[in-house]
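Let's do one together. I've listed all components of the complex below, 871 residues spread over two lines.
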Amino acid sequence: MQPGPRQYPAAPQHVYLFATCLVDLFVPQAGLDSVRLLEREGLQVHYPRGQSCCGQPAYSSGNPEQARAVARAQLGLFGQPWPVIVPSGSCAGMMRHHWPRLFEDDPVDGPRARELAGRVYELAEFLVCVMGCDFSAGAVAGQRDETVVLHTSCGARERMLGRLRAAAPKSGTPVAAIDSAIDQHYAVRRTPSPSPRALLESMQAALRTAQAQVDCVSAQAWPSLLAARLGAQQVRRLLLDTASAEGRALQAALPAGIEALPFARPLAEWKSELFDTVDAGFTVARSGIAATGTLIVAPDAGAPRTVSLAPPLHVALVYASTLHADMHAAARAERWADGMPSNLVLISSPSKTSDIQQTLAYGAHGPRWLWVLLVDDLAPGFKPDQGAQP
Amino acid sequence: MNAQPMQFVAPADFHARARAALDDPKLRQSFRGAMDFLQDKRRAQFPDGDELERLRDLGEAVRQHALSRLPELLVQLEDKLVAAGVQVHWAEDGEQANAMIHAIAERNGAKRLIKGKSMASEEIELNHYLEARGVSCLESDMGEYIVQLAGEKPSHIVMPAIHKTKADIGSLFAEHIADTPYTEDVDSLIQAGRRALRQAFVDADIGLSGVNFAAADTGTLWLVENEGNGRLTTTVPDVHIAIMGMEKVVARLEHIVPLASLLTRSATGQAITTYFNLISGPRREGELDGPREVHLVLLDNGRSQAYADEQLRATLQCIRCGACMNHCPVYTRIGGHAYGTTYPGPIGKIISPHLLGLESTADLATASSLCGACGEVCPVRIPIPQLLVRLRTEANRHPDEPVAHPLRGQGAKFRRGENLIWRFWSGAFAHPSRYRAFRWAATRLRALTPASQLGWTQHRLPLTPAPRSLADLLDERGQQE
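Okay, and this is what the predicted structure of the assembly comes out as:
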């Protein structure tokens, strides 16, 4: 039985009552009341005498054989295609959802159980959704507000989430089918050939939401802007790759008070110094993911892994022309499957945690601040490396 | 660092612990608030129901495909990793995994191990094992660090300290971290934690982490986190050991893209976490940081029992997001510790019998009304309610009944008397004439109904048959059939 918003039929003339063993034996008045409620709606209520129990007690205690025997005895009692009304949520749930599973492999009773399950209704569900009854205050003459207990059917969250639950592919699917399913999933939800400008805006928005500081700057302007920012932040030691064009451009723009520090030695030789004295690390991201505001950083010899990790401030530069719409597009365009660096890091915000009473706090172990320079290299004829000339 | 005290709890005492948890208003308030919060966060991440359902289809398809080819994918993963310079170890159980990790520590003369978050390491009680052998283990995930300081176990697989209030943590930090006055300011507490752990990253000889996903085609370990402690753990020490349940491999790196999206959105309601850390090998020639030695421990520890059975295999689709806990009416009320297992909540109920055997875990599967919420939020569509019913059946089966794939502890709840009662019940209720006779007797002899009815009357009034059954009353009324 596929959960999901149920399609309700038009109001019928006849219904069956499946009263359940609990009602039959212990609270028959509830059964009589159910009959009265249904008859009040002009329905002819049929009560097949052979009925006993849906089988739930045995089923939920882990005795499926006994549950099946009892459930099977009910299958033939409801021969007309009329709705079967059950004044108990969990029994209705048992019949509607678990009977089809109970008889899944049974070629004879399986179809009967599925057919019957399809027309099982919990009493209140039936009255409201099929008969259109209105039980709100004042809708019934002389009725006052009442406090009632709502006993929802097992699987009550189905409506919220199960709307489009689709059948599961069987195992043993060829890998190509999985690949194309993934491709298709992302293709459908992606704007066809998004404009670079739109990607740039999406990237900015996502990063800002993630509490990163974002500046969209020209290739000429960023070194001096960043130098001024770093000065204002009182950065003294800045880790950067002095061999890269961007590193040199930034180094040239730095004021006297800021030391440009290359990563010149293996980490083990200056671990404590890096952890204790370096205020900021500067990296150039390989690319970005616009949907989530993600920087794709591939550490290398000039800008190793810890540059974006150990100092409390991480400054990342990313060129607008390198932005991908989403992670799937990035993985495809960059051909991740063809070979990965020893470490590839996807960074989407400053370090954060909600581990104390679900309260968001920044700077847990990684950088507390993330600044992103989105270099707008989208103007026609512009080449990213031109921006790096000091 | 102070060692985590040996504090095993027997999952078999589930009932008593659940009772105690229900009587603890503070605990119930903590969990209720946290679970409501996480439910809202998740809901906000999936405004498009169509996208959610299709993504769940994808997640299920990817995981089922991977499981259908698990043996060959593990071999492919191993080949790729070994080619990149990673050492791959296979561990049948926790004891073997612990011994391997200890051997790596000994070979490196390592005394200090820093840990990123790893539920697999919790499962094998690695901290206890290593501490007993002179290797200190320090948890660096903030939540894990907090429960370690408190001498406790995680109460949630994604948010280990979710049962603690900021006041609890303020006291804990004031007591254990030098120069830290009591505060309830979360920002200050996090900074205190950061200060306390920072030097430990520098000093650690080994970093040990879990693994969220592994890709067989590229030989990549995919780690998901927010804090950066995972990156520090896998980057700064000279040796990195990753431990992973063997079911976590998928065929292709690109298959992880939808899984990672499902994971972060389902777990904490984030579109993406701060860091996805993709590790495909140790430090390469010319690189100046990153571990020189990387190990991967592939852990079975009962997973192959679930794998053997077609229905139970779905248990291994799990990506450990914890959404089933966050939406479970039972977990929400009793919290994670009551279960007494590494993995609590719905996923814990279906995985623990394979890890620990049904003898000590058979009660867990009964702690569910089969409401189905867990199955409906599961991002990879594990049919958790059906698996709960299946485990109840296995626990009730006669211990000696021959079956195709017997579970450890089959028949743990088998009681001859109870079995007879169900047979009698089924015999009476499956035949209209017998049921009529039973009904006649039950209503006429209602005065003989016992006032005490086992578990039923513990919290409810006794069930007493009515003087006349509904069938009688409707007969009298002339109700049509």
